[in-house]
TrEMBL record:
This is Glutathione S-transferase family protein. CDD domains: GST_C_Metaxin, GST_N_Metaxin_like. Residues 7-77 form the GST N-terminal domain. It comes from the Bacteria. InterPro entries: FAX/IsoI-like, Glutathione-S-Trfase_C_sf, Glutathione_S-Trfase, Glutathione_S-Trfase_N, Metaxin_GST, Mito_Protein_Transport_Metaxin, Thioredoxin-like_fold, Thioredoxin-like_sf. PANTHER family: FAILED AXON CONNECTIONS-RELATED (PTHR12289:SF41), METAXIN RELATED (PTHR12289).
Amino acid sequence: MITLYQFGPAMGLMDPSPFVVKADLLLKLSGLPYRRVRGDMRKAPKGKLPCIDDDGQMVPDSTLIRLHLADKHGITLDAGLNAEQKALAWSVDCMLGEHFYWGIVHERWMVDAHFERGPGVFFKGVPSLLRGLVVALVRRKVRANLWGQGMGRFSEAERLRLLEADVEALSALLGERRYFMGDAATWIDASVYAFVSGALTDAMGETPSRALVSARPNLVAYAERLRAEFYP
């Protein structure tokens, strides 16, 4: 049985990491038996979650997990997609993971009001005398990552415009289809659902991403459909 290492429920979500949710739904779509276990980033390959243990083979990263399912188990989760659709799915996945994600990171970690209701809960187990220092150090590291990636260099208005462009693209591409690429779920639904449902959480109040996604009825309906189907 495959073991998926995750963070666990938090912030009104089955997991605060959209990449963990993506990996979880990929495994659901694969039909392979698996279990969820709380992971430790210090012991994980590449120091990140998610990762899976598939019969002793450790596989990090949600995208590498998808490719592993194809290589080892022959489960590509792209049946019926032509070459153009496969390219579109890959492009959307990259937009979500390499662009939209960093907008979410900024609003969750750098905006005090959202941080206190969101990632701040991760630090409740830290002794009170050390908590302030630990929080400051971790947020400083996140800020440096955001600066290096680029999202941290933009103004609030610029970040909002970039997030809006991502959400507009997702909404236009989805249209009125049941699943992102048509009448059947494919691997890209794992990624789109993970990020859309994550943005819709109200645990941190009215974040920019929540406001933008909530304003697109087709994205809201999509998230509700997939939640009912895969996470009843």
